[in-house]
Amino acid sequence: MIIGTCKVYIEANWVSSLKEKRTIVKSITEKAKHKFNISIAEIENQDVHKSIVIGFACVTNKTCHANSIIDNVINFIEKNTNAFIVDTVIEIL
Prior knowledge:
The chain is of the alpha+beta class. The protein has helices at 18-36, 63-79, and strands at residues 2-11, 39-44, 51-60, 84-92.
């Protein structure tokens, strides 16, 4: 069993409230969850309205498949928001 995890650090400078941030996070997480069948959630900086940290995980039987899923999810997040991905931390277990 191979587990792929990723933390995505996103900066959204135009966001002016936590309510607006939560709307963005919910949209990203729900769409990605259904499209890629992953576990995904906001994991850090929940009280900072300009910073979003999303974590997700996938389970598969091949390392290359886990890497592919992670890359596809990162690309999906990048294309479906106006925010900028600042950093990603990927771990394959």
